[in-house]
Amino acid sequence: GRETIAKSLQSYASRLKAFILFMCIGICVGGVLSATPNDMVMFVALFRNPFSAEQYVRAVRWMYVYLQRELTWESEKLRQCLRGAKKAALKSGTQLRLAIRWDLLRSLVELAWHRADFAYALAYILAACFLLRCKDELISLTFEQISIDNDAVPPTIELELPSRKNLPQGTKMKRRCICASHPVLCPVHVFE
Q1: Cα(25)–Cα(40) distance, rounded to whole angstroms?
Q2: pLDDT band, very low/low/confident/very high, at 144 (cuts 50, 70, 90)
Q3: Are 183 and 171 in contact (CB under 8 A)?
Q4: Across residues 67-73, what is the average pLDDT?
Q5: What are residue 172's DSSP bridge partners?
Q6: N or C: where does the chain have the smaller number of CB atoms within 10 Å of the terminal CB?
Q7: Hey, which residues does 161 pair with through a beta bridge?
C-alpha cells in the first residue's frame, strides 16, 4: 500500500543522496547530472555487496530519466564491473552476510554475562528473538515497550514497536519462553 510506496521513495532518496554526496567530494570528472562512465565505476566500487551497488545504479538511472538527462555514465565497462562483482559474490559460495547461529549467540551472551555487560546480553537476546534492526529498533528500545506474562503457559514476553521497516503503523510481537531448548537465550527469563 501507501506505506510501501513511501518506504520505496525513502530508499530511492537515500540512494540518490549517497550518489550526490559522492559526486560532490571532488574526485569525479563529471557533475551530478553529467557523470562519466569512470565516475560511476568509482561509485559502484565503494560497495562490498554488488547487489546493493546495482540498486544504487537503478536509483541514479531513475533520476536521470525523470529529469530527462542523457545517461552519460552508462557504459560496457560499468556493466562488466557489476556483472563480474555479482558473479564473484555468487561463485565464492560464502554468504554475503553471515548469520549468527544459536551457538555463537549463546557464546556472546555468556561472555557478556561473564563481563557483567548485562545490557549487551539483553540486547543480543532481544535482537535475535525478535529479529530487531539494530539502528532503528534495538538501540531506541525502552523497558516501557516490554511486558512479560508469567501467568501464560508457557510464559511470554511482548514487545511493542512504534514502527518497523515494513510496518510504519507499528506492531506488537510476542515470544514464548525457550528455557527448555535454550535456557541462556530465553527472552522471558533474561530479566530474572
Answers
A1: 14
A2: very high
A3: no
A4: 94
A5: 160
A6: N
A7: 171
- Strands 171-176 and 146-149 turn out to be unpaired
The whole model's pTM is what?
0.52
95 or 121, higher pLDDT: 121
Strand, helix or coil at 147? strand
Band of the pLDDT at 65, cuts 50, 70, 90?
very high
Report the alpha-carbon distance of residue 40 to residue 21 in Å, rounded. 13
163's enclosing H/E stretch is none
Q: How big is the chain by its Cα radius of gyration, in Å?
A: 22
The CA distance from 126 to 181, in Å, is: 16
Measured between alpha carbons, how far is 58 from 19 in angstroms, rounded to an integer?
A: 11
> Smallest Cα–Cα separation from 121: which of 141, 135, 107?
107
188 in Cβ contact with 177 (< 8 Å): yes
- Within 10 A of 23 (CB to CB), how many other CB atoms are there? 21
Q: How many CB atoms lie within 10 A of CB 2?
A: 7
Mean per-residue pLDDT over the chain, rounded: 87
